[in-house]
Amino acid sequence: QLQLVESGGGLVQPGGSLRLACEASGFVLDYYTIAWFRQAPGKEREAVSCMPNNDGTTYYARSVKGRFTISRDSAKATVYLQMDSLKPEDTAVYYCAVDPVRYLVTQCIHQGLYNDWGQGIQVTVSS
Predict the structure, then answer these.
(1) Bridge pairing between strands 121-125 and 10-12
(2) pLDDT band at 124 (very low <50, low <70, confident <90, very high)
(3) Mean pLDDT of 8-27
(4) How far apart are CA 39 and CA 123, in angstroms?
(5) Cβ burial, residue 58 (10 Å; 0-12/13-18/19+)
(6) Closest C-alpha to 123, from 2, 11, 3, 7
């Protein structure tokens, strides 16, 4: 019954911006830890950002800190990842993930904890 549908990916030039959206269905999003992961070709899947709850406590990978922002809109049951100042090294497939446990920010980077995942969406940064 639970579904996560991602949108907003595509091809952008270096320095550009994209906003990824992940719409949830079948549960109340505000009860869940939310996260974004990404996987580049030939690389392991890595945590980009995660947020255990809506109190502002947030993890960002060093490579994206200051450029990416995770957020949620409970009324729309949607998770967002705002990506600014994009670089070619940001090119990857991006996945949203949620879990009913409100993990500590030190725990939410571990992909094995998450019950539900989006389908993955391609982000390509190139001129």
Answers:
(1) parallel
(2) very high
(3) 93
(4) 10
(5) middle
(6) 11
Q: Judging by DSSP bridges, how do beta strands 121-125 and 116-117 pair with one another?
A: unpaired
Sequential DSSP letters for 63-115: TTTTTEEEEEETTTTEEEEEE-S--GGG-EEEEEEEESS---TTTTT-GGG-S
What does pLDDT average to over the chain? 92
- Picking from 22, 30, 107, 18, the residue whose alpha carbon sits closest to that of residue 67 is 18
Query: What would the pLDDT profile of 68-95 be if each residue is shown by its tens digit?
Result: 999 988 888 899 999 999 999 999 999 9
- Look up residue 124 and give its DSSP letter: E
Q: What CA–CA distance (Å, rounded) separates 62 from 64?
A: 6
